[in-house]
Amino acid sequence: MESSFKINCYRHKLLGNKLCIIEVTSNKIIITNISDLPNKRNELDINYNLFIDFKVKNKQLQAIGLITNKHHWYYADNENLINLKQILGARVVFKGVNTLYNPLQQIGQGTFSNVYLLQSKTKSYEYYACKCLDKAQVDEQIGRQGLFEEVKAMVSLKHQNIAELLEVFEGDVSYYMVMQYYDLEFIDILNDLNDEDIHIIFKQLVTAVNFMHEKGYMHRDLKPENIMFSDSIYQLKLIDFGLTTKDSGRSKCGTPGYIAPEILNFDTKINEYNEKCDIFSLGVIFYKMLTQNDLFNGSNHDEILENNAKCITNFDLLNGNPKISKQAINLLKLMLQIDPTLRIDSNSILKHEYFGVQEITLNNTINSANSLSRKHSSVIKILSPLQKKNFIFNSPFSFHDDECIEKEASMQPIPIMVMKGGSVHDITKYKNSGKNRKLSKDTTKKYQTTDFDDIIADIKQNNNYRPPKPNQLQEMYNE
């Protein structure tokens, strides 16, 4: 059993430090005590029942804690501990999310989760996204095992066009999934795309889906909201693997307007569907990219779902449009076949004549470079001064989590920076008011802190809320 990583460390003992070696293999952590003879050796399986935490001092990692039947701390230098943390990554469960990260603001919201922007406590200029899930909701819907099926999928799906899951934390009332932070959203640039942009973006998207299918996975929730970019359209990232499965599809799930008809119309007791459901969703996305319109319209959720199930496709916006090539229309029709057995597969899409046209070189400048490319440095320059100046970005994570109780006694609500009409004055009004809002039992049943509940309440009052972009934060800060 060959080790892939090895560090020297020590444990504090009353009679002196004990020298140890920590080795990491493909599936085990091996701790060898070299101070005693004979050397004592302890092996821990790398899985999601292994809990690990860290000590941080002066913005540097000081020790790693391995939690088994006892809690043992192993001290080593910062660089080795950082490398060890990266190697273990999302293959184990970490404790103490607030030990390593400062939450800055909410940047997204789902049915059972919220997404926060995090700043590293050990690397001040590194930012991450954190998907925070309520444990009670997870246990009720899919269970801990179901959640870690999603984690396993993300860990196994390492690809340049798939968002990387870095770490998973578990607290008393919440799970936290830490990922790379991407600040350029597909839905923000849909109306600014030219033919070359569409070609560049769609090929990356199909490449990511094809990789998933080759690994045996279905995404089952492909839609524009689950497509992000790292700095530019040349670095597409597919996100949100909450519905991803490796089994044959037997459950009805997805987002109305993007669901394959075989999912909506089949009998779950006798039928099943396969990865071709993702191809239909790709077709709906491709249609929107080409026309800037939704394929299945409706004034409400039910109407969209009904039209999606009927699967009546109208190609009037495509036929006769000189800006849309015949190859694109042909490919679209192959993806939107109602019968999944007649529908093109992901590998064949990449070989289609639409992608056979001359490839656009990646160093070309796109039309709207300013709006299609943003740098994380703008977030660094803005949020950090705001945090230092106003002292208002305190942790949104639960009081009930053991790792979060320290220095959390006087928490202030996290402000919502609204896209329109937002200002530093609006952001700081909570801090200066000196008032703590009382919350009803109904409001607090899902999340256990005032920070989560204040944010959720504010968003419900403003249905048009969208997380601010770096350039908007710049304007707010300058103001």
Automatic annotation (TrEMBL):
InterPro entries in UniProt: Prot_kinase_dom, Protein_kinase_ATP_BS, Ser/Thr_kinase_AS
Any one GO molecular-function label of the UniProt entry: ATP binding
Family (UniProt): Belongs to the protein kinase superfamily.
Presence of the UniProt keyword Transferase in the record: yes
Domain Protein kinase: 101-355
Name this protein carries in UniProt: Protein kinase domain-containing protein
Disordered: region residues: 458-479
GO biological process entries: mitotic DNA damage checkpoint signaling
The protein's assembly and partners: Monomer.
Composition bias, Polar residues: 460-479
Binding annotation for ATP: 131
Keywords: ATP-binding, Kinase, Nucleotide-binding, Serine/threonine-protein kinase, Transferase
Pfam families per the UniProt record, alphabetical: Pkinase
PANTHER family named in the record: OVARIAN-SPECIFIC SERINE/THREONINE-PROTEIN KINASE LOK-RELATED, PROTEIN KINASE DOMAIN-CONTAINING PROTEIN
Any one cellular-component term (Gene Ontology): cytoplasm
